[in-house]
Amino acid sequence: MSERSLFPLIRFLSPPLTRILVKTPISANQVTTLSLFSGVAAAWFFAASDHRSVVIGAFLFVGCYVLDNCDGEVARLKN
Fold first, then answer.
1. What are the b/e assignments for 51-65, b being 16+ CB within 10 Å?
2. What is the pLDDT of residues 46-74, one digit of tens each?
3. DSSP letters along 1-56, please?
């Protein structure tokens, strides 16, 4: 699965999450940091390479991608 095939899913998931994040005191930089930690955690789970860990890593990676999309939206909405 390429990045291009995940894009419609990310575009579907990010607006509802952005609406939630905008209502909180979380800044765009903090959303970026959460995305970074999610990506590092995904890599750690992928490195374990058993089936359960890879599935967890896949969900964390999608979460990282969604948060990466949300940080720009939060930045624009919060100035």
1. eeeeebbeebbbbbb
2. 999 899 999 999 999 999 999 999 999 99
3. --HHHHHHHHHHHHHHHHHHHHTSS--HHHHHHHHHHHHHHHHHHHHH-SHHHHHH
CA 52 – CA 68 distance, rounded (Å): 24
**Mean pLDDT, range 17-36, rounded to an integer:** 94
Question: What is the fold, at CATH topology level, of the domain defined by 3-78?
Answer: Four Helix Bundle (Hemerythrin (Met), subunit A) (1.20.120)
Q: Which residue has the tokens 């948060």?
A: 67
